[in-house]
């Protein structure tokens, strides 16, 4: 009888332990596996279907389209010097959606193409077997990394493995989606002006893809991927993409911007300006989590012309500390003069930041250990990696997911 009673006590303790909520351990040093969609069994490439209706809200409710101070400098878009009529953007967007839908993806049979475009993804995760997560340690939090312009070029394929490995060792699932057409000929794609919106959509789809794929391959473990509070890291142009995704997706809890672009100059990337103000409006209104601008280093000469208000050509705005809000009310859009002539718009988003008042990093601005791309400078690779991870780790510690 005593043995039977002892047996039930032990069984009760085991059952109670099984019912306790399991916290993802970020302190452990896990073994790391690499998953590549299209190469790793069980991870077929995700597919993107793009419809014109996806952009309807942008066209109908976008304040940027109605700004009176957007001065046209392109004779192909109307009379030079007059306020820019954004009506042409509707036609452009639908034409670019059509161009995108005619792409044949690299996984397709050119003779019998399938609908949609399948795209690749690189995933680092805890565990010694690709696709298998260590039991009893989930659900695992997710980090999605948004690459900069041309960052999906094959020559950069392994460039961020060091960051993926580092965070997978700590218990994160770290995904790097391959942005469609974001390669060496990025600016020549027939859907260039809506590319940031396409990439934001890919980032959003990555969240649901990770949940489906790992749940299917880890049956019996319950909830294995925590997609309720996701962290985005965006570099340069990828920071612009990450902000758009965060504005649209309430699951994004932490936004980390490494040398991030905040707005594109009107003459250079006209289409990307379409929903910049609305993105900041949404981010400010929702007050979800925080954003971190780690650093920027853009020593001139730079490939873009320097605006007259910024002789140092600081296209990437310097920010020391944690960025929590961008305030557009302090410096509304107004005409900008270049050599006495209207040439575009100065946007308050360049300078008006409300910074977190807690601990800040030192010497973030123009740190020569870091290149503009947000990645460590090639001449100081190890030190730059350590510095970047230090910034991110302190931010994650200051603003934990739970």
Question: What this model shows, in words?
Answer:
The protein is an alpha/beta fold. The chain has one domain (25-398). 28% of the residues lie in helices and 17% in strands. It has eight helices and 13 strands. The strands form three sheets. The chain has a nine-stranded mixed beta sheet, with helices on both faces. A two-stranded antiparallel ribbon has the order 2-3. Helix 5 (195-217) packs across helix 6 (237-248) and helix 6 (237-248) crosses helix 7 (276-286). The longest helix has 23 residues, at 195-217. The chain is globular. The protein starts with a helix and ends with a helix. Mean pLDDT is 74; it is low at 4-26, 264-269, 297-302, 307-311, 313-318 and 343-364.
Give the secondary structure arrangement, pairings included.
Layout: H1 2-19, E1 32-36, E2 47-48, H2 56-61, H3 87-101, E3 117-118, E4 121-126, E5 140-146, H4 161-169, E6 173-177, H5 195-217, E7 225-235, H6 237-248, E8 252-258, H7 276-286, E9 290-293, E10 322-326, E11 334-338, E12 341-346, E13 353-355, H8 381-398
Parallel strand pairs: 5-6, 5-7, 7-8, 8-9
Antiparallel strand pairs: 1-4, 2-3, 4-6, 9-10, 10-13, 11-12
